[in-house]
Design brief:
- The chain has one domain: Rossmann fold, CATH 3.40.50.
- The chain has ten helices and seven strands.
- It has a seven-stranded mixed beta sheet.
- It is globular.
- The structure holds S-adenosylmethionine.
- S-adenosylmethionine binds next to α3.
């Protein structure tokens, strides 16, 4: 898997087709973290994929320690290979759909920050509510959770939803014109790389065709965060229906 860095670069380009200002999102997450501190943050990157967000934070906070959590063997395989030998990075394989996943994963409370991008929409509303509660318990007092993701537009505002969709479609057409991978094409290509055959087959067993679940609105997220015990929860960045939420524990 010597070409892990190349696959991750292609992953990032592929993701940018769906998240117009992905790097800006990562930067905002770092900005909040810089304010919350400390300078040596202990970070949990939830649903880390191949580790893109954790890499941006590790570059910005050289004394950070970032634990990436995911259930996808291919993406974790890429992350582990690309960052092998970096003592600031750790990887944990676990399925957030199982209550108590963090205990199985042998994680201990005390994180300064939990961060996540483009991932929690894979969970159902009930799973998300439970995961938020678990995360509130994993953070140290005063710690922060940040979640960057598309949220479902309020269905009673169909015209605003159409505007957001039209702008996202435009970004995708630009990506087509540049010849960048779609999600499907990226997976198709990596499945043809013999270095990934076994991991890819394991991925098929775990995920099947599952991708994203029920639409969850911003209001739902914010209410679930407060219910979970976060004392402040709000949007700190937004681009159409793509938001970064930040929530603080007492
Ligand atoms: C679109 S990717 C985003 C990856 C990365 N955060 C990024 O921004 O590039 C969604 C990630 O969520 C992970 N994921 C989805 N459901 C999960 C679950 N139940 N437990 C753990 N990870 C999950 C997937 O494996 C995938 O890596």
């Amino acid at each position: 898997m010597s070409n892990a860095h190349e696959w991750i670069q292609r992953w990032d380009t592929q993701q940018e087709r769906y998240i117009e200002r992905r790097e800006e999102r990562f930067t905002v997450i770092g900005d909040v973290l810089e304010e919350v501190g400390p300078a040596e943050p202990k970070i949990l990157d939830l649903c880390c994929g191949p580790g893109s967000l954790g890499s941006r934070l590790a570059a910005r906070f050289p004394r950070a320690h970032v634990t990436g959590v995911d259930f996808d063997p291919v993406l974790l395989g890429l992350a582990r290979t690309a960052h092998a030998g970096d003592p600031r990075r750790a990887w944990v394989e676990t399925d957030l759909r199982h209550a108590g996943w963090w205990k199985e994963a042998r994680l201990s409370p005390g994180f300064d920050a939990v961060v996540s991008t483009t991932a929690l929409h894979w969970l159902s509303g009930a799973e998300l509510t439970r995961v938020y509660r678990e995360l509130a318990g994993l953070l140290r007092p005063g710690g922060v959770l940040m979640n960057g993701d598309h949220v479902a537009p309020a269905w009673e505002e169909p015209r605003l939803a159409r505007i957001a969709k039209a702008r996202r479609d435009l970004v995708q057409r630009d990506a087509d014109a540049r010849g960048s991978d779609t999600w499907e094409a990226w997976w198709e290509e990596i499945s043809g790389d013999s270095a990934f055959t076994e991991l890819w087959q394991e991925r098929r067993r775990r995920f099947g065709d599952r991708h994203g679940e029920e639409p969850i609105t911003l209001d739902f997220h914010l209410a679930a965060l407060r219910q979970a015990g976060f004392v402040e929860a709000n949007v700190v960045w937004q681009r159409w229906d793509d938001v970064v939420m930040a929530a603080l524990v007492q």
